[in-house]
Amino acid sequence: VTTVYTLTESVSGSCSNTNSVTITVNPAPVASAGSSTSICSGNSAPIGDVAVTGDIYSWTSIPSGYSSTASSDNVSPTATTTYVVTEYNPTTGCSNTNSVAITVNPLPAAYAGTSAGLCAGSSTTIGGTAITGNTYSWTSSPSGFLSAASNPKVSPAATTVYTLTETVTASGCSNSNSVTITVNALPAANA
Predict the structure, then answer these.
(1) I need a labelling partner for 25 at 20 to 30 A (CA). Which of 77, 100, 118, 154 fits?
(2) Which residues touch 186 (CB under 8 Å, ≥6 apart)?
(3) Using omega within 30 degrees of 0 as the cis cutoff, is the peptide bond preceding 63 cis?
């Protein structure tokens, strides 16, 4: 917005003079930091926006450790982090600052248990104690075993790798781990 301010000065009620000054108000840069979001640990999230030609960008973070002069980036914080961008227009001398928070949700442990051996015809329990609000999904290799329990009982006929995927319902974050149950053949015990 440009405004012209005009001053009229009069002396003794007869002589006067007029002058004007023009004040131009330049808009501040947008300094778009992006949208706050949540990610699972190990994932990334976009921040910032498309660059405005000629503008200068400077990023910092809370906690500290991140810096960039790009208008946008993909970040992979290990903990919840606030990213702060300052956009500067060197033509007008105007600048603006905004921030975006990236919340990092932890992965579940997906405890599959300890690999072990057992005799043919025996059974064992794998996995661990269930965590309220989490879901569990087991598969096996060779295939044939499925379970939604956190610590199912298994009786493999041959050495089997059991894979657990645990998902935190609230955040959608999941993790997988495997355990190997080795099946040892029974001795012949010929009489």
Answers:
(1) 100
(2) 119, 120, 121
(3) yes
Residue 92 confidence (pLDDT): 94
Take residue 35 and report the two structure tokens written for it.
Answer: 């949208």
pTM: 0.81
Q: Please, are residues 95 and 89 in contact by the beta-carbon 8 Å criterion?
A: yes
| 1 pLDDT above the threshold of 90 | no
User: What torsion do the CA atoms of 145, 146, 150, 152 make, to the nearest 10 degrees?
Assistant: -40
Residue spans of beta strands (DSSP E) within the chain: 2-11, 15-24, 37-40, 45-48, 56-62, 72-75, 81-89, 94-105, 116-119, 124-125, 134-141, 153-154, 160-168, 174-184
Side chain identity, residue 44: S
pLDDT at 11: 86
Contact yes or no for 126/61 (Cβ under 8 A): no
